[in-house]
Amino acid sequence: MSNFTPLAALCGGMLIGLSASAMLLLDGKIAGISGILSGVLKPVRGDTIWRVCFLAGLRVFLPRAFDFGIIRPFPLLIIAGLLVGFGARLGSGCTSGHGVCGISRLSPRSLVATGTFIFTGALVVYLVNHLR
Amino acid sequence: MKTLLTSFVSGVMFALGLGISGMTRPVKVIGFLDFFGAWDASLAFVMLGAIVVYSVAFRWSKSKRSPLLASEFLLPRRGDLDANLILGAAIFGAGWGLGGFCPGPALTSLASGALPVFTFVVAMGLGMYLHSFVVEMGRTSSGFAASAANSSQDA
């Protein structure tokens, strides 16, 4: 637990919640990052520019946040990216859409999805970290 | 126009939230998923903070007919559990644990200019296209791909 940072985590989390709340209350949209991105990769007329604006906003420069700590080798990152992209579309969402927005709405689909991806994520980390 | 500004500012706030909470750092994500190692519970506190705030906003939105700047709330309506949801979440989680990145932190970290992040994001985009391709194939044939077509709606 040496790296545990509960206060920063809670504050950052509340800011994420505030961002998603603004999207809901002002624009009526769900702040699910994989969904927003996929709408840019397969653009639909009249439903693309807001997505580009959101993704542009994501790209603020945060020097301290880019001290990654762990960076997996390139082959693993490529496999990981493919799995994350494919899985997020097949499962209709990711950590933000299911894990934050969906759980807050008490959506059964999102509760199951979040439990599932934490379980398989933990399983893979166990295999990589402890069974090498 | 105002909705576009909301989107941009929300994107900035989202990135700041990820940065402040440390979630742009794979070491924090992998630390959370490492239940049998030096477990780091921070990610659970990020989710807690976000869920507390968003739950209030969601309850409030239910008392309103429409959002402030748009004509309607566009929320997912599905409540059924299907194989695609569980299989997709399982695949997503495996990639999340392997790389330590999910879509939000990866896109935010693009600003670092780091090649590994860029590589992950390109692969993630290809993964999304691969899903679309499988869905398209399903429209002309049958089997697993056909059922994948049902999963196009977001969380």
Identify the notable features of this structure and list them briefly.
heterodimer; A: 132 residues; mainly alpha; 6 helices; B: 155 residues; 2 domains
Detailed description of the structure:
The complex is a heterodimer of chains A (132) and B (155). Chain A is mostly helical and 132 residues long. Chain A has one domain (6-130). Helix content of chain A is 69%, strand content 0%. Chain A contains six helices and no strands. In chain A, helix 2 crosses helix 3 and helix 5 packs across helix 6 (108-130). Chain B has 155 residues and is mainly α. Chain B folds into two domains: 1-75, no CATH class; 77-155, no CATH class. Chain B is 67% helix and 0% strand. Chain B contains seven helices and no strands. In chain B, helix 2 packs across helix 4 (83-99) and helix 5 packs across helix 6. Chain B starts with a helix and ends in a 7-residue tail after the last helix. The model of chain B has no long low-confidence stretch (mean pLDDT 92).
Short description:
The complex is a heterodimer of chains A (132) and B (155). With 132 residues, chain A is mainly α. Chain A is globular.
List low-pLDDT spans of chain A. none
Which consecutive residue ranges of chain B, at least 5 long each, have pLDDT under 50? none
Biggest sheet of chain B, in brief? none
Number of strands of chain A: 0
Assembly of the depicted chains? heterodimer
Number of domains of chain A: 1
> What's the end-to-end separation of chain A, in Å?
22 Å
As a whole number of angstroms, the C-alpha radius of gyration of chain B is 18 Å
The main sheet of chain A comes to: none
In N-to-C order, the SSE pattern of chain B is HHHHHHH
General form of chain A:
globular
Number of domains of chain B: 2
Q: List the total number of helices of chain A.
A: 6
The helix count of chain B comes to 7
**Arithmetic mean of pLDDT of chain A:** 95
Question: Given the C-alpha coordinates, what overall shape of chain B results?
Answer: globular
Mean pLDDT figure of chain B: 92
N-to-C order of helices and strands of chain A: HHHHHH
The fraction of residues assigned to DSSP E strands of chain B is under 5%
Let me know the number of strands of chain B: 0
